Amino acid sequence: MNNISGRWKLGFALALTAAAMWGLIPIALKGMLSLLDPITTTFFRLFLAGAILTPLLIFGNQLPNRAKLLSPKLALRLVGTGVLVAGNYGLFCFGLEKTTPEAAEVMIQIAPMLLLLAGLWIFKESFSAMQWAGFACFVCGLLLFFNHHLKDLFIAFNAYGLGMLMVAMSGVCWAGYAVSQKFLLREFNPQETMMAFYWVGTLALLPFCNFTPLPLFDLWQWLLLLACGVITLIAYGSFAESLMHIQASRASALIALSPLLTMAIMQSIPLDGIRAEPLGWLSLIGALMVVIGSMATAMAVKRA
Fold first, then answer.
1. How do residues 45-83 score in pLDDT, each as one tens digit?
2. Domain ranges of the chain
3. Taking CA atoms, which of 185, 200, 230, 282 is between 20 and 30 Å from 276?
4. What pLDDT does residue 304 have?
5. Cβ contacts of 274 within 8 Å, gap of 6 or more
6. Measured on CA atoms in the order 128, 133, 137, 143, is the torsion positive or negative?
7. Nearest to residue 112, comparing CAs of 15, 216, 227?
8. DSSP of 93-162
9. What is the pLDDT of residues 116-174, one digit of tens each?
10. Which residues does 221 contact at the CB level (< 8 Å), separation at least 6?
């Protein structure tokens, strides 16, 4: 995959923007889930992002490859990848509903790790000793972070454990999306693909939505719903664009920082109706190990 511009400063800024947005997403979504069910919340994330992005691309003449949609193969790949994006969004919401923003954001870090592991198989890459050490650090960090929930995860498997499983499955969907996106970027620009993904997900979820709570929303609740869509648009748009300028491994390393922002906000700012994860020293060390392990695995490229 050599279609990288080399504008690393722009790619760095875009990936860092995506990391910041992904750090905010679980907090905004947790507030939204007290008002709407996970499917309807996910529908609005996709719909609002698509509704904002589509006119910008149409009136900005940024759809140069739309004729390629007539290709059944490319259209089917866009639909399949859009379903993966919807699965990523929806499963994350279902998992977040049963857990906390910090826990969900730490667990979802398996997504970029899975993307790196996929590179071993799909892109015929190889891991250096340092990368395997980073992977071991990541796994140990997860165990340390969830040290007070190990029974919930592996023995009792209660609502918390089910929630973490759903977040993990969301990570699998994300890794599948990211791999497919790299191939699609040979034919489309990043924003074209994201527009397609948003509308595929919107149409797929529409029959299962419950809109009855909406007439009861006040101004702040509508603003929160809009924020979920805007943050989603910025996060995925920035990440997709970053892949045009830097290697996927570099982008993955930067988005690994997102749990630190989530934890900093949740642990320092009391938020009405949103429970913070009770974190001891072991959990804090574990979270740091997850971030360091993710970054080390992404950045420690094997030398020829």
1. 999 989 999 999 999 888 888 888 888 899 999 999 999
2. 8-299
3. 230
4. 38
5. 27, 30, 31, 101, 266
6. positive
7. 15
8. HHHHHHS-HHHHHHHTTHHHHHHHHHHHHTS---B-HHHHHHHHHHHHHHHHHTGGGHHHHHTS--HHHH
9. 788 777 766 677 888 889 999 999 999 999 998 888 888 878 899 999 999 999 999 98
10. 35
Radius of gyration of the CA atoms of the chain, in A: 19
> What CA–CA distance (Å, rounded) separates 89 from 96?
11
Is pLDDT of 286 > 70? yes
For residue 298, which of 69, 94, 133 has the smallest C-alpha distance? 133
Task: Choose among 257, 270, 299: nearest CA to 22.
Answer: 257
pTM of structure: 0.88
3-class secondary structure, 301:
strand
Average model confidence (pLDDT) for the chain? 88
- Residue 163, token pair as written in the block: 């929630």
Mapping DSSP to helix (H, G, I), strand (E, B) and coil, where does residue 234 land? helix
Q: Report d(CA 195, CA 51) in Å as an integer.
A: 9
H-helix or E-strand spanning residue 76: helix 72-98
Residue 301: phi and psi, rounded to 5, are -70, 135
Q: How far apart are CA 121 and CA 52, in angstroms?
A: 36
| pLDDT one-digit tens code per residue, 169-214 | 999 998 999 889 888 988 988 888 989 999 999 999 999 999 999 9
